Amino acid sequence: MKAFVYRRYGGPDVVELAEVPKPVPRDNEVLVRIHATTVTSGDWRVRTLHVPTGLGLVARLAIGFTRPRQPIMGSEMAGTIESVGKHVTRFRVGDEVFGFPGGAMGCHAQYRTMPEDGRIARKPANLSFEEAASLPFGASTSLHYLRKAKIKAGEAVLVIGASGGVGSAMVQLAKHFGAQVTGVTSTNNLALVASLGADRVIDYTREDFTARGETYDIVVDTVGKTPVARCMRILKDKGRLLAVAAGLPEMLASVWAPLTGSRRVIAGPAEERAGDIPEIAALAEAGALKPVIDRRYRFAQMPEAHAYVETGRKRGSVVVSVEHA
What we know:
The chain is an alpha/beta fold. Helices cover 28% and strands 26% of the residues. It has two domains: 2-135 and 291-321, Quinone Oxidoreductase, Chain A, domain 1 (Alpha-Beta Complex), CATH 3.90.180.10; 138-266, 3-Layer(aba) Sandwich (Rossmann fold).
């Protein structure tokens, strides 16, 4: 099968098309013929080792010290089941599915196997393959952090980076849970964030959102460029800062913040739960979670998709359609 691989860390030029063995499903696995995948900020980080402050050594130990252990990137996919292992009972050949291997990656390819009890579910009938592939990364990350924060209806939530892959899902899911949501984004994305259900939007290029004199129950930082101290000063008593793009300073703050007051910092990698994918499917079918797709690329344009994501200007998801001979 064809797959895009990277054998060394670097820019979009390290992403190359290659012929690799087609995987064979084990007894408890399904083989998915991939029709759509995405390029996320996570792909950019593992390709360049551009990780949050203080985590460079940890990243090399996890991803590969001198070169990547997993040469095929891509954490999201949607497609059709081509074959199943002999013990599989939940899925059948021909089922349309979407999945999220997450940190295991491997979706920038024509095929991928998934355990039937893994992070895979039937594709929502109201979504295309491209739309379904765009949902798992942002939505599952948002669900993790909102659960950790124990969000309650009526709480005030501020989302920094509200137009990104995680931010756009965070706005929608916080609204679904009954919160009053304020989105922070750039001028060009104000209308998009409002269309996702945000009660208010703030243009960070024209206004300092930490100097408005307003406080929030939850502040979500999906970008990682606002210092912890600035976020903490706009939190209410018992407020929670969700540091999605946390580096070492935010992780340390998650330890000392509870010792110095009632506010908390929630940081660390998002838990990848199998149950999230069926939940995301149900939310999408109910209209509570809508895909946000910035650009679409063909499979042969994978390096161009990487180059666009690296600009840091994408809105929602960048989707890649996967062709088959």
